[in-house]
Amino acid sequence: MENLHNINIERSILSSIFFNPTQFEEVASRLKASDFYLPAHRYMFEAMEACECGDLPIDEEFVRKKLAQENRFDEEVMLEVISTNPLPSIAPYVTEVKEKSIKRELVRLTSDITEIAVERDMPAKDVVDVIQQKLYQITQEATDREFRESPEMVRATVAHIKEMKLRGNQGVVGLDTGFKELNHLTTGFGEGDLIIVAARPAMGKTAFCLNLAQKALDLNKGVAIFSLEMPAEQLMLRMLSAKTSIPLQKIKVGNLNDDEWTRLSDACNVMENRKLFVDDNGNADIHHVRSKLRKLKSKHPEISLCIIDYLQLMGGTGNKDRHLEVSEMSRGLKLLARELKMPVLALSQLNRGVESRHDKRPMLSDLRESGAIEQDADMILFVYRDDVYRMREEKEKEQRARAEGKEYRSTFFEKPEEESEVIVGKNRNGPVGIANLMFQKACTRFVDRGGVPVEIIYEGAKEAKIEVTPI
């Protein structure tokens, strides 16, 4: 394995840091201690990290002291490093060390493959999934430390707080949802979050998620959609309708006037340049999703949101009970969100039990196979439109009247724009409550409702309704 390491380059990098300690941050942003092949060099780099965390000078004396405290000091290695000439340009040498470290990891992976595939006798799909995960971690330079240590966590947290301050206290920490009241409740979708969007059929959960996707695309973020229910062309029709304000039905049949054709053409030109990726394979399972999303994220790091439409249509990975399969899928999606450091949004159907209640607003218990989903989700959003039930009730009354030979005049009129609610039923890092929106049916589009107070119900409180002025 001589071609998989270069002791001289490692020694030169450490010497350059001693000569000019300001270079440490540049090196530390690209290398971790385990990237050094020689153990003594790894220990020395860790000592430099400790000095940096403790606001101590990165020089021979303090590094020597840190190493001595850990019984890791090697006088001969220290002399070799100090006597080595510093590098005129450190960047290409850092790249070389990183390249050799990755190659060593890949060599180790080959032995892991033999162990996993032969000695453990795991199912083929599981073997492929484990290998892909390890490969993704190697290529993304993931740390192999078992625990994140306090100094590093404190620095990362302070850096996050400063970043939020630079944003001007906007209240949106994660990915902007595009809806003011929803942003106020959620502060956006965080990296590593699993968000469940649930509703009964015809409530508009797919339209709502496509609106979220459009907002991310408009912010020049990448979006990946796994559509198990409808082909990619239908998704694009809905997005174009929402973007152009042209009714979906008119776009479907091509019944457009000159102005509408112009608007549609302009929207198509915009969408062509967006980073939108759709997998409309209707037979996807958790292995399929993980494999394709890892590859896509590696190729397009700008991917910032994944949408799965919808959870119950995902195939199982064996002959397990359906509850166990859903548990495996929800847990797998949560781990994938954390691994790729991006929100994963999964749509879910609700049980029919909601239909039998007088108040048909969904609750957590209405989720199908709710135990696993409720446990793994960081956030659960319910899409609710009361007019859907009102219209259904009117049609039932009309049918009963006709069956009895009576005339029935309905007082209910179908409106082009309906009041709707996005109910935050679970929010691991904030309050639950209701975001009030309007649903424009012709364009399958949810929009903000102006001047309406947000109703917030904090978890743990029995009755605590607070009116908050929308941002």
Automatic annotation (TrEMBL):
It comes from the Bacteria. Keywords: ATP-binding, DNA replication, DNA-binding, Helicase, Hydrolase, Isomerase, Nucleotide-binding, Primosome. Residues 168-453 form the SF4 helicase domain. The keyword Lipoprotein does not apply. GO terms for molecular function: helicase activity. It holds the Pfam family DnaB. Gene3D superfamilies: DNAb Helicase, Chain A, P-loop containing nucleotide triphosphate hydrolases. InterPro entries: DNA_heli_DnaB-like_N_sf, DNA_helicase_DnaB, DNA_helicase_DnaB-like_C, DNA_helicase_DnaB-like_N, DNA_helicase_N/primase_C, P-loop_NTPase. Its EC number is 5.6.2.3. It catalyses: ATP + H2O = ADP + phosphate + H(+). The keyword DNA-binding applies. The main replicative DNA helicase, it participates in initiation and elongation during chromosome replication. Travels ahead of the DNA replisome, separating dsDNA into templates for DNA synthesis. A processive ATP-dependent 5'-3' DNA helicase it has DNA-dependent ATPase activity. Belongs to the helicase family. DnaB subfamily. This is Replicative DNA helicase. It comes from Sulfurospirillum tamanense. The lineage of its organism: Bacteria, Pseudomonadati, Campylobacterota, Epsilonproteobacteria, Campylobacterales.
